[in-house]
Write a structure and sequence with these properties.
Bound molecules: flavin mononucleotide
Structural class: alpha/beta
Number of strands: 14
Mean pLDDT: 93
Number of helices: 14
Distance between the termini: 79 Å
Order of helices and strands: HEEEEHEHEHEHHEHEHHEHEHHHEHEE
Strand order of the largest sheet: 4-11-10-9-8-7-6-5
Strand content: 5-15%
Radius of gyration: 21 Å
């Protein structure tokens, strides 16, 4: 008698491989990244304390307690169901939104749905984002959103990953019409996100015209799908043709923040976020909220869900402490803080003609207590 072997589609198997490959190709923790090119200027005399900091905001008409979310990762297999259950419990306890991994697999393998539905089951009242790829139709988008009773839909665009994957897509002509009809048909916000290569001004302009509510730049610097796909093929020797492709998260945020603000589109930051300081850097550079995938997954898989919860609690305190240190009560205040942009990021911005973020207007109080507002910064 042959034992019954569960049928696992190639797409679902790939999601399991991505978990291991993402861990195996993570950059070393102490390797500098573009985030290190953004530093804050220390003020020695803050006039507020941690109790004055208010990090809560309203996003997509829902209260957002913290400017942080667990970004898209997995689903589709038994193993990923367990990972999603753990991530959802951590997100629920920390009051953070959570995104599902790509749900496209359920349109080929209906049995895979449970590994995504678990996100809502474990976290019935939290903010949950469904996730599909840009090949999906508006009907499929509606189905995915219904399945999770999702608060928003992420549509990921991942051309570099597809082209670096043996079995990946080779043409993308359906993406724009699909995104447009998804935006038109859905009554909840549509977020278009990259998966680690960044979103440029020109791409953001197109997305805004297609009707998106939010853009998550998900830039280079953390999880690298060019390296992940190379790892899956067993070809890690040498450099791959896409290993250094794309814009870093700080570069992408700086490039599109004004465009998004003018268009009333919510800007989200993710890609390579390693610490509470990186979260605050993203917020300073224009993100309303910040997504983390690889760093949280690594903690979960290597040290367990309790440790991930502890680290998130530490980050929350540290984010509040950094706000107090910067004398900022809110995310809006933070936009006015003085930063210094150096190194490779400065060079890239200069080379591309993108204005280097200017510091907020200094407020200088003279010795006699006379306030001089509006003094131009250097
Ligand atoms: C194991 C793994 C699987 C992922 N799967 C998806 C996915 O299904 N859909 C998606 O939009 N992004 C996916 N991503 C990309 C992340 O959402 C994020 O954009 C990217 O990893 C950059 O963030 P990070 O550097 O914090 O990991 C995945 C990331 C990881 C680590």
């Amino acid at each position: 008698m042959t034992a019954e072997v569960p049928v696992v589609s190639a797409r679902s198997r790939r999601k399991d491989e991505h978990l291991d490959a993402a861990m195996a190709t993570r950059p070393p923790e102490d390797e500098p990244t573009t985030f290190d090119d953004v530093s804050f200027v220390h003020g020695a005399l803050p006039s507020i304390g941690v109790d004055d900091v208010r990090l809560g905001q309203v996003m997509f008409a829902r209260p957002l307690a913290h400017p942080l979310y667990v970004n898209a990762m997995t689903g589709g297999t038994e193993r990923s169901r367990k990972v999603n259950a753990d991530l959802a419990a951590v997100a629920r306890d920390a009051d953070l939104p959570i995104a599902s991994g790509s749900m496209a697999t359920i349109f080929r393998d209906a049995d895979a749905a449970g590994s995504f539905e678990i996100l809502r089951k474990v976290n019935p009242r939290g903010i949950v984002f469904a996730n599909i790829n840009a090949n999906c139709t508006a009907d499929q988008a509606l189905y995915a959103v219904d399945l999770l009773a999702a608060d928003a839909l992420q549509v990921h665009v991942n051309a570099a990953q597809e082209l670096g994957m043996d079995e990946g897509d080779r043409s993308f002509g359906e993406w724009r019409p699909n995104i447009e009809s998804i935006c038109r048909r859905l009554e909840i916000p549509v977020i278009v996100k990259e998966v680690g290569f960044g979103i440029s001004w020109n791409s953001a302009r197109v997305l805004i015209d297609l009707g998106v509510s939010a853009i998550d730049v998900s830039g280079r610097g953390g999880t690298n799908f060019a390296r992940i796909e190379r790892y899956r093929r067993g070809g890690m020797a040498g450099r791959g043709f896409l290993d250094d492709w794309g814009q870093s998260t700080p570069e992408a945020l700086i490039e599109i923040r004004d465009l998004c603000e003018t268009a009333g589109v919510v800007l989200l930051g993710s890609g390579g976020v390693r610490s509470s300081l990186d979260v605050v850097r993203c917020l300073r550079l224009g993100a309303r909220a910040v997504g983390v995938s690889g760093a949280f997954l690594s903690l979960l898989l290597h040290e367990g869900a309790d440790r991930l919860s502890e680290v998130i609690a530490e980050w929350k305190y540290e984010i509040t402490a950094l706000f107090a240190l910067l004398n900022c009560s809110t995310v809006d205040d933070l936009r006015e803080t003085e930063i210094c942009v150096t190194g490779g990021l400065r060079e890239r911005l200069l080379a591309r003609g993108i204005p280097i973020p200017q510091q907020g207007t200094h407020r200088i109080t003279t010795e006699v207590g006379r306030k001089i507002d509006g003094l131009e910064t250097r």
